[in-house]
Amino acid sequence: MYKYDEIDQAIVNERVAQYRDQTRRYLAGELSDEEFRPLRLQNGLYIQRHAPMLRIAIPYGTLASYQLRKLAEITRRYDRGYGHFSTRQNLQLNWPRLEDTPDILAELATVQMHAIQTSGNCIRNITTDQFAGIAPDEIIDPRAVAEIMRQWSTFHPEFALLPRKFKIAVSGSQQDRALVQAHDIGLEFFYDADHKMAIKVWVGGGLGRTPILGTVINEQLEWQHVLTYCEAIIRVYNLHGRRDNSYKARIKILVKALGIDEFRRQVDAEWAHLKDGPNTITEAELERVAHHFTRMPYDTLPAHDASFDAAIASNPAFAAWVKRCVHAHREPGYRAVTLSLKPHGVAPGDATTEQMQVVADLADRYSFNELRVSHEQNLILTDVRLGDLYALWENARAHGLATPNIGLLTDIICCPGGDFCSLANAKSIPIAEAIQRQFDNLDYLHDIGDLELNISGCMNACGHHHIGHIGILGVDKDGSEWYQVTIGGKQGSDASLGTVIGPAFSADEMPGVVQRLIDVYIAQRSDEERFIDTVRRIGVAPFKEYVYADKAGKKEAAHV
Amino acid sequence: MSNATPKQLIHGNQIVADEWTLVKLPVLGEEVVRKQAGKVVLFKLTGEPGASAEQIAATEIPASGKVIVPLSVWLARKAELQERLAKGELGVWLATHEVVEALAADQADLNVFPLIAVFVERFADGRIFSIGNLLRTRHAYKNELRAFGDVLRDQLFFLKRCGYDSYLIRADRSAEDALAGLQDFTEPYQGAVDLAEPVWRRRQRNGATA
Ligand code: SF4
């Protein structure tokens, strides 16, 4: 992974000093709340319901074990012994003290980490596929360009105060796992006809209040130009994006207002001046950064391992875990492993100090001292030998990290919601927990099969509810908490946004509603069909009908 | 300028006296205040006209000394201002919702102006950065480029990188303090106006294939 040189280190150190002074001035009354706000936000600090929340950047989801140990230490020393992995591959602390945040950042700087631009109206942490570098369907490893873009976007002076937040995702695999179509800019890497690296550029995607999938603005951009091209896009946005209404300030609104053709024309006009300028990436720079992401020193292993096969045959619990949590690897004899942060009854994405330490140890022992964070809020060890899987499983299981539910209904993506977030309309964590309890039977869960259930506590859609096969959105009706349900959303190359099935439900009703959706699916599915396939085939109506059957009955009865 | 008022202008990395007089458009009648969800909207959308013909005509320009006039006044009253321009006494200012092209459209060489200033009503309005960049790069403007309005220490480093070299710090803040903001970072990553090249072109970096 990328290792800082003295230039990178100086930048994070200077940032700590800058932020320390800003915090001092704020506490001394020299900066108003309004003036301090963007400064703290651009360092990941929110003022939340109970305490500030600090969001720490995990660039494109890659962590070294020593960094995770530092995070563990921070959660113990400055927080309440746990942290929350977010849907944008960051780590959030729910209980730090504002006065401590400069010290936390100083601690992070010692392990080449920071909280730069994890919030605020600027270019945010760049996200990518958690299996980058090892996925069998990968065409191009996007991490080198992601790192080059991280550096370019860090304190980009022209884009320091955009109309609104700006999210970039990169992907280089056949199956998109980075949600490129749901970002302000999505970059999809591929090889062109001459086997040169090229990029398909999507713009104006995003969830939130006005969910919309991105539009292709450039079918084929040569990789050298990615920075200047993004500068052209963001400059047009910076100058012309709306600043009078924060709900209409995202780039997607500008793209819609102008139409993609006019937007593209303006971007091209800007780009004509920037193209081939100094920010054009050189081969040497790409090579320098790519050098940090070279192939791991894999052993030559046979494709099969007898002890592994035997364990699968004799231990159904292990077999179930392998089925859900172990993923293909491009090297023979290696696998990637997802450590589930979704044990039933715990807030999705939360990890305790101890669990972080355990995962760091597992990474050291089994996976070249590195791990990844996924936008599904789980942790991944990317390079585990087949022969080590059983020992890894036993160890992970002992620490509540081996729930065999990856990709299943209880692998819920869930934002912090009303328990923590001051923007929330409704709580989301208790809903996740109630659904996990409803579906606590593992055999049944496996029978239901692949299903993504996403929960957001408000329109901001941090829980990506629009692209959940089942999406749940907290809404406020006359001051009480209600939940609107969508089905048919999907991430990936064939992404789609879910359709609202009808009026919202109370919290108590939610497990039953999900149960009914599943009942319809089980009754209607043909072989091999996943929930999402059934929804796409038969449409929303049969689900809607069954879910609301009772309600309609009650209403009619009431009318009599 | 009286010695009693502290100097608020930073130019050339030091605090200096301001020789320029800012000319503002007169306020005529009621200003329209739009509201959004209970908040007063302070941002004007890009490209909105900056002034009415009436306001432009009513703008009083001091007869002597260095003056900075609004873009709209310059565009409408160019003829009468030529003499001042020739004497090096005329600067132009624009607000962040005005477009640079309006200034550059019939004035191919912006270097006729000894000073161009950009007014930022709220510090969070990042259009000021792109405007600075466009003036310096697209329009090759070389003379003093000033930011004024809600200009605060914590944005100075960005302003500097976007081509500003002159900052009129908001009256209630210390310019002395703000000076430090220009030094927040020693070696920024990306190429911008002040350092056109990204760090990997400026410096030999670890692991580069030399
Ligand atoms: S979706 Fe809403 S409630 Fe949930 S974390 Fe985001 S802003 Fe908060």
From TrEMBL, chain A:
InterPro entries reported for this sequence: NIR_SIR_4Fe-4S, NiRdtase/SiRdtase_haem-b_fer, Nit/Sulf_reduc_fer-like_dom_sf, NO2/SO3_Rdtase_4Fe4S_dom, NO2/SO3_Rdtase_4Fe4S_sf
Nitrite/sulphite reductase 4Fe-4S domain sequence ranges: 119-273, 411-552
Pfam families (alphabetical): NIR_SIR, NIR_SIR_ferr
Segments forming domain Nitrite/Sulfite reductase ferredoxin-like: 53-109, 343-398
Cited Gene3D superfamilies: Sulfite Reductase Hemoprotein, domain 1 (3.30.413.10), Sulfite Reductase Hemoprotein,Domain 2 (3.90.480.10)
Gene Ontology terms for molecular function: 4 iron, 4 sulfur cluster binding; heme binding; metal ion binding; oxidoreductase activity
UniProt keyword 4Fe-4S present: yes
Keyword annotations of the record: 4Fe-4S, Heme, Iron, Iron-sulfur, Metal-binding, Oxidoreductase
The keyword RNA-binding appears for this protein: no
PANTHER family: FERREDOXIN--NITRITE REDUCTASE, CHLOROPLASTIC
Family: Belongs to the nitrite and sulfite reductase 4Fe-4S domain family.
Protein name as catalogued: Nitrite/sulfite reductase
Organism: Pseudomethylobacillus aquaticus
UniProtKB/TrEMBL annotation, chain B:
InterPro entries associated with the record: UCP030820
Source species, domain of life: Bacteria
Protein name: DUF934 domain-containing protein
Organism: Pseudomethylobacillus aquaticus
